[in-house]
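Quick one, probably user error.
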């Protein structure tokens, strides 16, 4: 059964960057899941879903509904499970990637969420590590798409909003009964050494900060894969230390 890590936090704090960089250190087989409808993680990993003829869960649902004329009834959802692996799972030597995807119709993301939620217990059996990148904010916790988490990493920026956010994360996961083994706090690149005092006082295990990395910033600006970042870059080194603090065995990067 996979060790499941989830990266969560407020908008723009560095959740996706953390997942993309952490993925380089964890042993295969590993599955990366992009829960953000904005589906930016594929780009950050250097994956062109279109070119590999991989679709997203939302895309698959749209196609299935268009063909059958039925939108998200139980039978349609059951049929989707068998095609999810073949159509939505991007596979490579380094990692597999599953993307929730953008919807271009009116309505919530309940149906794609349900498809992913039902598929997860089966998928977890095939991997040693599963890394989940969440959309900004709290709603994904209420949606309870991933309900059994080994390591919940809450990425924070130096603000009172992030302090309150950590409290809300704790309250929601308690209220909706999400199981987790560890809740880790990670300070983002905007923290000073002085600000870190604030992070240490939070209810959760503080693992340290991710250093500012101008090269990573440039990679994200140019849409370049974070799998090509040099091993000695500040973000790479910080994430490696954070993973070790969380008890992960870090592999050498490819
Ligand atoms: N260590 C770092 N050094 C410099 N810039 C960074 C670092 N980590 C993240 N960034 C920058 O911060 C911005 C947001 O990062 P990222 O997309 O990972 O955040 P996010 O929390 O996933 O955002 P969203 O809420 O939109 O999903 C990016 O432009 C990225 O380049
Ligand atoms: Mg993101």
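Nope, works fine. Designed sequence:
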């Amino acid at each position: 059964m996979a060790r499941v890590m989830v990266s969560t936090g407020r908008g723009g704090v560095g959740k996706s960057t953390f997942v993309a960089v952490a993925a380089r250190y964890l042993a295969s087989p590993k599955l990366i899941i992009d829960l953000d409808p904005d589906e930016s993680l594929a780009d950050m990993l250097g994956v062109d879903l279109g070119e590999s003829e991989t679709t997203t869960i939302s895309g698959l649902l749209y196609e299935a509904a268009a063909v059958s004329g039925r939108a998200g009834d139980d039978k349609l959802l059951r049929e989707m499970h068998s095609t999810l692996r073949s159509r939505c799972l991007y596979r490579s030597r380094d990692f597999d990637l599953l993307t929730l995807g953008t919807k271009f119709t009116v309505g919530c993301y309940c149906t794609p969420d349900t498809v992913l939620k039902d598929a997860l217990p089966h998928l977890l059996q095939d991997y040693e590590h599963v890394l989940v990148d969440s959309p900004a904010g709290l709603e994904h916790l209420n949606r309870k798409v991933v309900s059994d988490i080994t390591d919940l990493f809450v990425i924070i920026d130096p603000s009172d909003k992030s302090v309150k956010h950590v409290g809300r994360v704790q309250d929601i996961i308690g209220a909706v009964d999400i199981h987790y083994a560890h809740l880790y706090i990670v300070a983002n690149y905007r923290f000073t050494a002085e600000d870190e005092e604030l992070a240490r006082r939070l209810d959760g295990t503080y693992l340290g900060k991710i250093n500012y990395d101008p090269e990573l910033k440039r990679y994200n600006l140019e849409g370049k894969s974070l799998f090509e970042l040099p091993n000695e870059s500040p973000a790479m080194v910080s994430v490696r230390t954070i993973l070790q603090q969380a008890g992960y065995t870090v592999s050498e990067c490819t």
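The CA atoms of residues 148 and 179 lie 5 Å apart.
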